[in-house]
Design brief:
With 266 residues, the protein is mainly α. Helices cover 48% and strands 0% of the residues. Helix 3 (84-109) crosses helix 11, helix 8 packs antiparallel against helix 9 (195-207) and helix 8 packs parallel to helix 10 (214-232). The N and C termini lie far apart (84 Å). The relative contact order is 0.13.
């Protein structure tokens, strides 16, 4: 009697089901073309009709679908947005820095890192937050039992965060750049702006290649909107974080051509 598979699928090659077919040894090599075809047929008949893949959810990325929001930035309070000439000047400087990084990438990536520079594994999100921001910023001020007076005077990058040195960022490929941007921007969504974060965001944007991938579009737009949101809550134009927030909005809008997010001259 023919199997269900044989009934549904047309037979492309004739198979001789001669004598001794029941004693066919699937573990040994076929002795002739007919045995080979019969082995394939028997192996197929032993396969289950339905196969369910065992998927580990932990291995799946958090963002499987890219949703590029078209929402704009919150308008800056009067007097808080930069002039057009300031924005053009920042874009020009940023372009020069990108060219310098591209030109010297091979040179800097071949530099030997100091022994204390231990970069986390690519999948270690918490490790990258500690590496870039430092334990004090990542864990918060309450994480350390020492007061400012008790802190060791020596510079400890594990607590303060490693700066985005060219010898470090030159080693990143585009996948790593996008991954780090996503990690830091997600952290920024729920916390205030800090200088360590600004330095790393600027360096990663300088390493971000154009044309942008869809996920890069979504991430940098999210960054600009978060910066605009914080800026909209500022009271004083002398706030030390205002220039950095304006700069990040400017680069996303003007250099990466997300013009709907750009600050317009007052």
């Amino acid at each position: 009697m023919k199997s269900d598979v044989e009934e549904l699928m047309p037979r492309l090659l004739p198979v001789d089901c001669g004598e001794g077919i029941d004693e066919l040894d699937l573990s040994g090599p076929p002795r002739n073309p007919q045995e080979y075809l019969r082995q394939v047929q028997l192996e197929a008949s032993l396969c289950p009709d339905v196969v369910v893949a065992q998927i580990d959810p932990k291995k799946l990325k958090k963002k499987q679908t890219v949703n590029a929001s078209v929402a704009g930035c919150l308008a800056a309070p009067v007097g808080f947005s930069p002039s057009l000439s300031w924005q053009q000047h920042q874009v020009s400087n940023f372009s020069d820095i990108r060219q310098t990084i591209t030109k010297n990438r091979t040179h800097w990536s071949n530099h030997t890192l100091d022994d204390n520079v231990q970069m986390p594994k690519l999948t270690d999100e918490d490790g990258w937050k500690r590496f870039c921001l430092g334990e004090k910023t990542y864990l918060g001020p309450s994480s350390s039992g020492l007061t400012d007076v008790d802190q060791e005077p020596a510079l400890d990058y594990s607590k303060m965060g490693f700066p985005p040195l060219l010898s470090i960022v030159s080693r990143f490929n585009q996948s790593t750049v996008l991954m780090l941007l996503d990690i830091l921007i997600s952290w920024f969504e729920e916390r205030e702006f800090v200088p360590q974060l600004g330095r790393w965001l600027y360096a990663l944007l300088a390493c971000l290649e154009k044309p942008l991938l869809p996920e890069a579009h979504s991430s940098i737009r999210q960054l600009a909107r978060r910066c605009a949101q914080l800026r909209s809550t500022m009271i004083s134009q002398e706030d030390e974080n205002l220039p950095a927030l304006n700069l990040l909005i400017c680069l996303v809008a003007r250099y990466f051509e997300q013009v709907d997010l750009a600050d317009q001259p007052e």
